Amino acid sequence: MIWFLTIVLPLLAAIITAYIPAGRRGSGFIFAGAALPALWLGLMEVSGVTAQWFLLESHFSLDTPRRIILLLTGILWVVAGLFAESYLKDDARRGEFSFYFGATMAGNFGLLISAEVASFYTFFALMTFASYGLVIHSRTPSARQAARIYLVMAIIGELFLITALYLAVQSSGSMLLADIPAALAEDPNGPFVFLLGLIGFGVKVGAIPLYFWLPLAHPAAPAPASAVLSGAMIKAGLVGWMHLAPVGLVEWSSLSLLMVSLGFAAALGAAIYGLTQVDPKTNLAYSSISQMGVMTILLGIGLYGGIPARLLLPAIALYAFNHGTAKALLFMGTALPARVGGSWRILMWAGLGLGVLAIAGGPLTGGLWTKYLVKTFLGESSLPGGQTFLLLLTLSAVTTTLLLSRFLHLMYKIKAPCEKVAPAFLFPWLLLLLAGGWWTMSPALLPTELMNYITKEKGIMAFFWNMLTNWSALWPITVGVILMALTLKIATLNRWPTKNPLLPAGDFLHIILLAGSLLAKLLQNGISLLDSGMKSLKGPEKIFYSISDDKRTSQISASAESILRRWEFVGIGFFIVFLTMFLFLR
Amino acid sequence: MSILIDILLAILGVYLAMQSLLASRLSQSVFLFFAFGLALALAWVRLGAVDVAITEAAIAAGFLGVLFLDALRDFSPRDTEEQQNLTTVQNSLSRKESKSLLLPRLALVLGLGLFLLIALEAVWKIPEGGGLTAAAETLLPESGVEHPVTAVLLNFRAYDTWLEIGVILLGLLAVFAVGGIQIYRKPIAAADDPLMRQVILFFTPVLFLFGAFLLYIGKSGPGGAFQAGVLWGAIGILLHFGGIPVYSWVPRWLGHLLLTLGLVFFLLLGFLFMAAGDNLFEYPPAYAGLLILIVETLAAISIAAALTAIFANLNQMKKEQPNDTAQK
Amino acid sequence: MEIYQIYSLTSAILFVIGLGGVFAARHFIKKIIATIIMGGGVFLCFVSFAQRDALTFADPVPHALVITGIVVAVASAAFALALARRIYQLTGEESFTNDK
Amino acid sequence: MTELPISPYPALLVGLPILMATLSLFFRTRGEALVGLIGALLTTGLAIMAFVEVVQRGAVIHILGGWEPPLGILLRMDPLAAVFIGMTALVGVFISLYAWRYFRALETTTGGLPLFWPLWLFLWAGLNGLFLSNDLFNLFVTIEVIGICAVALAVLSGKSTALSAGLRYLLAAITGSMAYLFGVALIYGSTGTLDLGLLGQVLEPGTTTTFALLVITLGLMIKMAGFPFHFWLPPAHSSALAPVSALLSALVVKGAFYILLRLWMEVFGVSLTYAAGQFIGIAGAIAVIWGSWQAFMQTSLKLIVAHSSVAQLGYLLMVFPLLILAPGVTADSADWLSSAWTAGIYQVISHAFAKASFFLSAGIIIMALGHDRIESLRDLVGHMRITAMAIGIAGVSLIGLPPSGGFMAKWMLLKGIFLSGQWWWAPVVLAGSLLTAGYVFMLLRLAFAPAREKEPFRPVPKSLEVFALLLALGSFLIVFPADSLIQFLESSEVFGTGVESILKGGVHGNN
Description:
The complex is a heterotetramer of chains A (about 575), B (about 325), C (about 100) and D (about 500). Chain A is mainly alpha-helical. Chain A has 24 helices and 2 strands. Chain A has helices at about 1-20, 25-45, 65-85, 95-115, 115-135, 140-170, 180-185, 190-205, 215-220, 225-245, 255-275, 280-300, 310-335, 345-360, 365-380, 385-410, 425-435, 450-455, 460-465, 465-490, 505-525, 540-550, 550-565, 565-585, and strands spanning about 50, 60. In chain A, β1 and β2 form a beta hairpin. The relative contact order of chain A is 0.08. Chain B is globular and about 65 Å long. Chain B folds into 3 domains: about 1-75; about 85-120; about 145-320, no CATH class. Mean pLDDT of chain B is about 80; it is low at about 85-95, about 180-185 and about 320-328. Chain B has 13 helices and no strands. Chains A and D meet through α5, α6, α22, α23 and α24 of A and α8, α11, α17, α18 and α20 of D.
């Protein structure tokens, strides 16, 4: 029952809240209530169920990594729901927002608890397409552009991942997701199928080079939606990877190296590119890409063999949990500085600071612990160049700190209101603090096996208070902060852009668009369709539209159709079909 | 000797069919088509299918011929193809078009030729099937009629026949539908011509009796509901010509009753026996002959009414001003 | 060569003529006539087989089928004629224009 | 044959709608609509009862006149027919409700077009008769009933474009049925029977059978607008009134497909070859691509939807290559047959729901705007939320995104394609989906876009919008009983069978 409630309640909430008249309150609590079954499932272990009447017989169950992520997701949706109620109090389209919000929520929960391919894909698609409504919510030109690109990328991603899932089902001979990794490990085509999945889910994860929609779409949505997009939904792609990856069963060295190097490229590159941005939300989006890079690295190690899935996957989930709560904290935090005044600001800054520390893996935070997990596994893997990777990981802590202190600086520059006020959504936000990354160390989430493996009987608290680990976590952050402080204080070094981003957000996209438009131009020249020319660089689908909207194209296809509509040609078609089939049948 | 007649008849049929499509004047086309229908009717007679011959002559050649002739008044009297050829000469643009059509037409003819060869082979090589003559012969005594074709039509395959009566009604509804949104209008009578009226009034009872005879004889020989229906329908059409629009005299409800009588009675009778535990259209053998005669009579009335109404509607299409064009 | 074979071969020819007429004729009326010629071919085919399978009487089933078929064909032809006349009345077109 | 239980439902399913149709002729506009609607509701109820009967008792028959085949005619309602009849009833009842309201709204200007009701009920009877029929000639009569009704409905508006399209449609339909009948004549001549069940046992391969198969197939392909015979469909479907367009594309074209499927699988197995199946598949594939592309190029809503029908019907033809096995493959070892059948059935049902909803929505938009140029769809979301939602949902089902019936169909089709190793069809399915996504999202993008200038949206009865939405939702809801539906269908004799094409002559056969 609770499994169905997990999905049905958000859908109900979507419909109910869409009809709450403007000015009335309560949508927040409805959403919070709708997420309760998910929280319950995240905390308690409930045995799975089978629903024969849904799709092609659906199964719902959870394993440890997905349970962790479900808990994270549940928490984020509760908080975002509460936050959204007061954040969007005066928004004209709040009903619509609520509808998409609830639908996305149902999809997000559903895909996490699905144990077989059909319902997983169904809910994945529901989440993907419902969140289109969240991205386009503000209807500003930039939101529209972001939404369009989001949609195009989502469809491309869906195509890849349905193919991957499809082939995986073929190879395993069962619809159950749990059977897939073992089957792929055996299958000679396994790496290829996994690569397809890597691309398909990579769109959602924001992996290099498929991430370019993300810095546009995440900031475009309203703050609570950005928080769930970046905190929870992005993890859905990760879950997809985890479903497909035969961790610990294979030694696919090239795929593993590919994932690790792409992960590092994301971890370092995105952080550095993010520094050039001036919008705090874009900053955070790049940080998300960078952090997802770290998770990509972890999963990549798993494909090299040696580390069993029961240790590695929970570790990835724990890392995701820490990042998700902290990132949601920061995203929602972007709404705060302009509305929080007086002494409330101390609380706000404390929260933001804590979030930044947690992501950078600062001392005495949950981030420290999860980063330690990464380090441990990276050190233990037999991957060539392991030591270099460890060094790079430390370096990424520096760049992350740089990026996030830049974020804090940008936030600092937002003008505070004069009077001493605190908006209603400060409180749900504070609630998120309670759900912070420390939970990753609590026995409720941390599997005993993993804890024993890492801490070697010393216990988690001994680790937590260990001076050495705390120190080694502190210095990269200090370096980062000092670097940022120096560049800000010393005028000659202060080259930070203030008005416009140094480089456009969605970097890679512009290269694609450029290449695409060049290609389109060539195509047009080639078939002498150069008539309208490329008017604008609005989106990849424009290339298609520019061909289809061309007068010549429409003339040609219309006249072709009108030829097919003439009786003489229908007759010729009749005889061609007749004679061909006669030959085939004789 | 007799085979020569058949060959000549076959050649005549093919020639008339070709000519009616190739004729340059539309009126020629229609007349040749009329002749084709009669040639076909002769062919049926040669093949021993007298029922089919009567039906063909009455409906396909007769009724349809009248409809086509009536339509001729409507279309432009000028010669369509000829005129097109004329304009082709004058207009270089359309000459171009006809040139561009040459290749497709050649391809079409080639395709037709190959299709014909294969069709001939298929028909030539047809294996002996045996048909259902034997089965019909054994079951004929149970059917309640003596003529096998009537037995098949109204008993063995009564379902097809029932649907077919429905199709005639549908044909009328469809003709109504073409009239656009103004339906159920009263037809307008033709010009008054006293001489013609007299002639027609003279023929009316003759036709009626002949129809009734065909209906009754259908039990034991060629004839039956369709043939009788067409003859009675011919009365309505003739009266319409003679300025006596029966169709508009009849009140609306009666008109509809006549139109649907055959179909509905047929079905209700079937339902009645179905309620008694039989299958649809299953008659108790003892009453089968009588029931079939009643069904046939009502069906003939409905067919006659439908044909008259179809003709009346088509006939007055020309006269009616297309004033609903303005509403477009 | 049996008598029925003359007619069954003729039926194939008539069918092909009708088929060609439907595709190649321009005027509405001619297209309609072509469909009826097609139908005539088909019915001839049926009846020729009835003659072949005759015992004490010719096979009655094809006869009945042909009577049904003729009536159905005539109903559709009457409908087509009504359409053609109405189109001519409204637009003055006598054949299909190709721009649509 | 007679061992199957006898039931009165098959006869009632044909008789009742015709009875109500004739009854409705006796009333004036309002009364006629009321009688028509009651008739539609009664027929739906009857269809549901008949469906339940088949669920409980398995396939049932009705021996018309008490004469058994080959002399008599048999109506047979097996699970496959029951599913088609049920689909017709479900889609039909929503369209009827819509039509009732729609014509009430039009009453002031046009007199309410009362002919719609008798014609629609006749059409319904024809469809039921077609699904039930087990006799080659009776099938001809039913497709003629359907054809005349369909064309008469299509020209109801009386506009010259509709009339011209209607004549084209009618001539195509007559040509198709005459070709079909020619094949029937040859088959009767060579076997002496018309009953499908008996024919399947006695038909021998040979030139005559092959030729008969071809003219029958071509005739039916003209009727179902398979490529390259789709020439009549877009003008006819786009120029008809909204409820009529919905009926035509949701139900009428499926009738020809149903016969084609049953004849190929049940009767003509002896003379089919693998290559012929592939060829039909190619025609379907071209239809998918061409129809979708044409839909994409159109600028008026109804034309988009009509061209999309061409593409969606192409998917149906693509089922055939999967059902005809390569030489050397036996039906027992071909484990994709069930998927291919499921794909076909689901494509039929989901397309019926989605396309009906699409056309009904188009009707609403025409009623509100007075035309259906797609530029005017701008800000549809703001004005007609429900209709926009219906278009979106129906569009998603057409694209084949989950969890719609369209997804089910495409998923099963892909499954069949990969299992059978005929991977070359897969790109077509994907490309078709992509192009469909192209025009559906083009519409949705416009629906979300802000209006350039305020065009007056006339008020439209809310219930119309609701019926369109319900149909769209139906295309999703049909996924839920998928499992039991397939199980139910599997008890049908023909479902899940394939044709083994070994040693049947032909290119892959005995040379």
